[in-house]
């Protein structure tokens, strides 16, 4: 009997401790919202304190985004710049966009303004798109790596954030320690198509020589697809490590 009383008292104590923590959390969230109100990154409308599907995007703006681009159009871009060996087996992209579009503003907010949660939220949406094809089974989700110097500058790898969102949607493990960048490269943003190809050529290498991907089906993840150069060379490295099939997934497909 004494054991039951002690256990009951412990449960009551745990309950009140939890309520105290939740009260403090609610107060802090209210204070943060008062000091720096959450607003939509696109239209600026106040988002309020309540739980939302998207923390930095209002539903009106999200619903106005264009539908996903067909995989065939992504492959046309890949074949245009890499007409030889087929390295990538399938490709997904959540939104088509232009460089000056609202969607690209979201990407910039994620990468350069510290709104890292955008990557995970949109990654989850990308995962739901991929899940439309339930027969496709992946062994690992692999984010395109960034150089350790850029990781120090930015504080995170946006492709890892997106991968985490996809992993939550698909319940598939991630592989963050499979490949790395062998050298620091110039950002692709201002480069021409040919410069992009040269910039990432032979830049991806196995993180450990002992890693064997034989027979593995992989989903390779990045934020933006422009010429496909980064994804192509990353996928080429994974194929050389023994991967069986490699599909790619990006948040944005830039251009027409």
Characterization of the model:
The protein has 9 helices and 6 strands, in the order H-H-H-E-H-H-E-H-H-E-H-E-E-H-E. The strands form 2 sheets. The chain has a 4-stranded parallel sheet, with helices on both faces. Strands 3-4 form a two-stranded antiparallel sheet. The chain has a single domain, classed as Rossmann fold, CATH 3.40.50. Helix content is about 45%, strand content about 15%. The longest helix is centred in the N-terminal third of the chain and has 34 residues, at about 1-35. It is globular, with a radius of gyration of 22 Å. Strand 5 (about 215-225), helix 9 (about 230-240) and strand 6 (about 245-255) form a beta-alpha-beta unit. It is an alpha/beta fold. The protein has helices spanning about 1-35, 60-65, 70-80, 100-110, 115-130, 150-155, 160-170, 195-200, 230-240; strands at about 90-95, 140-145, 180, 205, 215-225, 245-255. Helix 5 (about 115-130) packs across helix 7 (about 160-170).
Q: What's the structural blueprint in terms of helices and strands?
A:
Layout: H1 2-35, H2 59-63, H3 71-81, E1 90-97, H4 102-112, H5 117-130, E2 140-143, H6 148-154, H7 158-170, E3 179-181, H8 193-199, E4 204-206, E5 217-225, H9 229-240, E6 245-254
Parallel strand pairs: 1-6, 2-5, 5-6
Antiparallel strand pairs: 3-4
Helix pairs in contact: 5-7
* Rg from alpha-carbon coordinates: 22 Å
Average residue pLDDT: 83
Q: Major sheet: size, sense and barrel closure? A: 4 strands, parallel
SSE-based structural type? alpha/beta
């Amino acid at each position: 009997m004494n054991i039951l009383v002690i256990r009951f008292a412990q449960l009551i104590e745990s309950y009140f401790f939890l309520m105290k923590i939740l009260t403090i959390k609610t107060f802090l969230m209210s204070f943060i919202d008062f000091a720096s109100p959450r607003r939509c990154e696109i239209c600026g409308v106040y988002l309020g304190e309540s739980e939302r599907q998207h923390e930095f995007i209002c539903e009106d703006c999200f619903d106005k985004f264009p539908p996903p681009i067909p995989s065939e159009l992504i492959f046309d871009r890949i074949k245009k710049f890499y007409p030889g060996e087929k390295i990538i087996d399938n490709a997904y992209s959540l939104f088509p966009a232009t460089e000056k579009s609202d969607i690209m503003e979201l990407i910039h907010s994620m990468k350069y303004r510290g709104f890292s949660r955008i990557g995970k939220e949109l990654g989850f949406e990308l995962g739901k798109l991929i899940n439309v094809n339930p027969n496709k089974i992946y062994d690992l989700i692999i984010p395109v790596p960034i150089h350790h110097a850029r990781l120090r500058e930015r504080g995170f790898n946006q492709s890892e954030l997106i991968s985490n969102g996809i992993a939550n949607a698909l319940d598939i493990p991630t592989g963050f320690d499979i490949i790395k960048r062998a050298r620091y490269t110039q950002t692709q943003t201002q480069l021409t198509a040919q410069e992009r190809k040269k910039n990432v050529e032979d830049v991806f290498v196995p993180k450990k020589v002992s890693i064997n991907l034989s027979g593995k089906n992989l989903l390779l993840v990045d934020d933006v697809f422009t010429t496909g150069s980064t994804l192509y060379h990353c996928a080429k490295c994974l194929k050389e490590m023994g991967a069986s099939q490699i599909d790619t997934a990006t948040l944005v497909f830039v251009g027409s």
